[in-house]
């Protein structure tokens, strides 16, 4: 850490939100490592997002 200025990093306290986010990321990483993650092409993602957004536009 001596190579960095205090402007280059931020020390994060492990509050409930941080711990929750960390657990979600660990689950996702485990799925990727085990080959069980679901991937989308850019076109598939676009269609999914458009469908989801349209549900909330009305």
Detailed description of the structure:
This protein is an all-alpha fold. Helices cover 59% and strands 0% of the residues. It has 2 helices and no strands. The model has no long low-confidence stretch (mean pLDDT 92).
Would you spell out the secondary-structure blueprint of this structure?
Blueprint: H1 16-33, H2 42-57
What features would you highlight for this structure?
58 residues; 2 helices; mainly alpha; extended
Structural class: mainly alpha
Whole-number mean pLDDT: 92
Strand runs, count: 0
DSSP summary: helix tally: 2
Summarize the structure.
It is built from 2 helices and no strands. With about 60 residues, it is mainly α. It starts with 15 loop residues before the first helix and ends with a helix.
């Amino acid at each position: 850490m001596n190579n960095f200025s205090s402007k280059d990093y931020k020390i994060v306290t492990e509050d409930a939100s941080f711990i929750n986010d960390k657990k979600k990321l660990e689950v996702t990483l485990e799925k990727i490592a085990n080959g069980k993650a679901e991937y989308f092409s850019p076109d598939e993602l676009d269609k999914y997002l458009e469908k989801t957004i349209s549900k909330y536009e009305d």
